[in-house]
Write a structure and sequence with these properties.
It is a single chain. 35% of the residues lie in helices and 17% in strands. The protein is an alpha+beta fold and 177 residues long. The chain has a three-stranded antiparallel sheet with strand order 1-3-2. Helix 1 runs parallel beside helix 4 (98-117) and helix 3 (76-91) runs antiparallel to helix 4. Residues 19-47 have low confidence and may be disordered.
Length: 177
């Protein structure tokens, strides 16, 4: 990724209050350059998945509830509103840049996943897929396959377009028995 795209992504994400999609090595590089300028700046971030493999976590044993269906259905309309809010706020004024969009997909998916998890819907596994592409009068089709129980599993989808890019966001909610 070019330095200009990294800086633009960092500025945009910092302005929105999240730089969690930047890798830890990129953030540390920015911290050291900031310290060289005799100014103190702090950056908070979350490491990308897979960096915590050296810290073992104890396995959590859960009791069987013998509950075969959800007590509370997944709120599709609420998740559609979350998708609309997040995609509109992050992408409204953006122009398509491949490097920036790569970072934005990570950030948007983390934000959507966190906001959906804040709804605290029990026993659902959440899968978030974000696709961003350049708008050039082309056709594109997305497909996905999985094992599905139509009685309890569901999804939510939202499509966003501006002058230079499009985004398709899908949230799948799979009931965990």
């Amino acid at each position: 990724m070019s330095d200009a795209a990294k800086d633009k992504a960092a500025r945009l994400l910092k302005k929105r209050g999240s730089i969690s999609s930047l890798g830890s090595h990129e953030v540390k590089a920015k911290e050291t350059t900031a310290k060289n300028k005799d100014s103190l700046s702090t950056v908070s971030y979350i490491d990308e998945p897979g960096h915590h493999e050296d810290i073992p976590r104890p396995a959590v044993q859960m009791e069987n509830t013998y509950q075969l269906g959800p007590a509370k259905r997944f709120p599709v309309a609420t998740v559609n509103n979350i998708l609309k809010d997040v995609l509109t706020s992050y992408l409204q004024e953006e122009k398509y840049d491949a490097d920036l969009c790569r970072q934005m997909t990570k950030t948007i998916s983390e934000v959507v996943k966190a906001r959906v998890k804040d709804l605290m819907i029990p026993r659902y596994k959440i899968i978030v897929l974000i696709n961003i592409g350049q708008l050039n009068e082309q056709n594109m089709k997305f497909g996905s396959r999985c094992l599905w129980d139509p009685a309890s599993d569901t999804f939510s989808s939202f499509t966003f377009k501006n002058n230079s890019l499009f985004a398709v966001a899908n949230v799948y909610a799979v009931y965990f028995e």
